[in-house]
Amino acid sequence: MLEKHLSIVISMFFSLFSALTGSCELPDFELGTYSIENSLRNGQLFEVKFMTYLTGTNGSIPQTCKIKCVDNQWVGPFCTIQSGEGTTFQALLRGCHFPGISKQYLKISYRGKFINNKLSFDVENGETLFASCPPIGRKKLLGQSEIHCFGGRWSHPFPSCLPTATFDSLTDEGSPQLQFYDVSNNLYETPEGQLLVRPGAVVHIDCIFPRKVGVPQWTYTQKDRHYPTGWSMERNERDLNYRISVIYAKYEDTGIFTCATPHGHANSISLVVKDVSCSMAVDVVPPLFVNLSGVHAGQEAFYSCAEGYRLIGEYKATCLQSGNWSSPLPTCEVILCNIPESHDPRVDIRVTGLTLNSEAKFACPHGYKLYPNTTFALCTESGLWTVFPPICKEIICPPLLPPLNGYIEEGITHTVGEKVHFRCSKNYILRGKSVAVCKQSGDWSADTPFCVSTCKKPYDLFGSTSIEPRKARYLAEEKATVTCNNVKITISCRGYNEWQGNISPCLFSSP
Fold first, then answer.
1. CA dist., res. 106 & res. 158, Å (int)
2. Residue 227's pLDDT is what?
3. Which Cys-Cys disulphide bridges does the record give (predicted)?
4. Do 269 and 171 share a structural domain?
5. Is residue 511 in some structural domain?
6. What is the CATH number of the domain that holds 268?
7. pLDDT band at 165, cuts 50/70/90?
8. Domain tally for the chain?
9. Residue 117 in contact with residue 93, Cβ under 8 Å?
10. pLDDT-wise least confident of 19-23, 367-371, 373-377
11. CATH no. for residue 415?
C-alpha cells in the first residue's frame, strides 16, 4: 500500500479504460516530485508520473507510478512491475485495515498464525484472514470463516462465536457441542479453524446431545461417501454421544460434517485429509539444537542453544497445514556482557572474560574498602553482570575511649596507618599497649589499656639495708621485701603512694 510520501486525490478503478478522452486539472501533491513530460495529447494533460514508496513484505521499495486522465477524472495509481515483457504499469489495488476487534471466544489467524485480535494492522490486497472459535466444536461460528481483502474492502463482516449447550443444561435448545478424537493422535486443529488428519486415520466425531430428547442427524458435503453413525457404545457416553466415524481417512473424505438437532440447531466441523510434513530448510548444527515431536502438521520443533549462547528467534515452531514451519529457524548468539565500569575511578576491575560465567573482580587501593562489599560479579545469560561495580570508600577507624585516669594523644582522621598513643595521669602507669594503629580491616591494632595506681619507692626506713625488687614505681597490691636490722619485712602497695605492712622492726635499733 502507498505510504504517505505523496497524497493524491484519486479514484480507484480496477481496470483501465481503453479510450482516453477529456482533460483533467493538475492534481495537488503535498510532498515529492512529479513529471508531466511527454504527457500531453492534443495540448491536454492525460497522465502524471511520480516517485513514491510501496510498502510490502519486502519493506519499503521506491517505485515509479502514474495516474491517467479518463473521462475528466484521474484514474490509478498504476505502478511499475517486472514481468516477462519487461517493465509495465499495473493498477495498484489498496489493501485493507484490520481495526482490531473484541469478540468473546473469536480468534483470528493470519498467514498460519493466531494474532492478537485487539491489535490493528494493515493487510495487503488479496490476503485472507481466518476466523475460528477454538477449541473446534466447543462453540459455533456465526458467519464466514474466511474474510478476503480486495481493493481496500473486506469480503464479509467478521463473525462471532456462540456458546453451545453445556453438559449441565443439555436440551434441544442451542447448538450442540462437537467432540472428536483419533486413537493414533493424528489430529491437528489448524489456526484456520479446520481439523487436519493424515490419510489412514480413524476419526470419531461426537455430537453431544441427550439421547432421551431425540436423535440428531449427521450430514456431510462429501459426495459418494458414506460414514457409519450411531450412539457411542462406551458406558459413560452412550446417552450423550451421537457419533459419526471416518474409517481409514482418504483424501476424498475432506469436507464439512454437520450435526443438527431435531429442532434444527446445528454445528459443523471442517475436516481436511492431507499428508502434510515440514522439513528443515537447513541442517541444524551446534550450537543450535532441536527436539522434534514430529514433522507432520501440528507437531512441534523445540529449539535450544548450547551453554554460553542465546537463542535469537522463536524457541518453538509448529508444522503448519501449508507444509511450512510457523517460524523461521532461529540462530544462536554468543552471550557477551559489556566491560563493567564503575563511576569511581579508584575501583580496580579485572575480568576473566566477557562470555557466560566470566568473572569480574573488584578491588580498592590501600586505605579504602569496597562499598557495598562485593568483590566479584558473574556474566549471566541475560548478558548482564550479577551486580553493578561498587565504589571505594576511605577506611575510617572508630574513635577510641581514653583509659580511666589517662588520656589519648591521637591524630585527626583515624585513617589506615594512623597511630594513637595512650598516656596515664600522675601516679598511674599503663597496663597494656601504649600505641594502637588503624588497620585495613577498619579496627585498631590494640584495645584501650588500663591506667593503674602505683606507689613510689618507699623512703629508706631506719636501719633498712635493702628493698627487693628495686623499682621506681610499684603497682597497686604489688609486694616488696624490706630488710631492717637483719629482719625481712614484706610490705604491700595500696596505691596512691601508700604502703601497708608491719615495719616495727625497722623502727628500733638492734642492741
1. 9
2. 97
3. 305-332, 424-451
4. yes
5. no
6. 2.60.40.10
7. confident
8. 7
9. no
10. 19-23
11. 2.10.70.10
Interatomic CA distance for residues 349 and 339, integer angstroms: 9
CATH of the domain at 366: 2.10.70
φ, ψ dihedrals at 252, nearest 5°: -70, -10
What is d(CA 240, CA 406) in angstroms, rounded to the nearest whole number?
Answer: 101
β-strands 195-197, 266-273 pairing:
parallel
Closest CA to 213 of 264, 261, 266, 165: 261
pLDDT bucket at 81, cuts 50 / 70 / 90: low
285-310 average pLDDT score: 92
Q: How far is CA 85 from the centre of its chain?
A: 50
Q: How many CA atoms lie within 13 A of 185 on its CB side?
A: 4
Over range 248-263, report the average pLDDT. 95
Determine if the peptide bond prior to 389 is cis (ω within 30°).
no
Same domain (yes/no): 178, 260: yes
3-class SS letters over 291-349 = EECCCECCCEEEEEECCCEEEECCCEEEECCCCCECCCCCEEEECECCCCCCCCCCCEE
Q: What is the pLDDT of residue 1?
A: 39
Nearest-angstrom CA–CA distance, 303 and 317: 8
Which grid coordinates belong to 61? 521499495
Compute, in degrees rounded to 10, the torsion defined by CA atoms 502, 503, 507, 511: 80
pLDDT tens digit sequence for 402-431: 999 999 998 788 999 999 999 999 888 898
CB 20 within 8 A of CB 70: yes
254-278 mean pLDDT: 94
Q: What is the C-alpha separation between 496 and 511, in angstroms, rounded?
A: 35
Instruction: Answer yes or no: is 295 within a domain.
Output: yes
What digits encode the pLDDT tens for the residues 170-189?
Answer: 556 789 999 998 877 788 99
Any domain includes 310: yes
Percent of the chain with pLDDT over 70: 84
pLDDT over 60 at 455, yes or no: yes
Same domain, 175 and 246: yes
Q: Is residue 248 domain-resident?
A: yes
- Amino acid present at 281: A
Domain identity same for 184 and 253: yes
Is the pLDDT higher at 50 or at 439? Answer: 439
How much is the CA Rg of the chain, to the nearest whole Å? 49
Range of the domain at 488: 457-506
Q: Which amino acid is at 115?
A: I
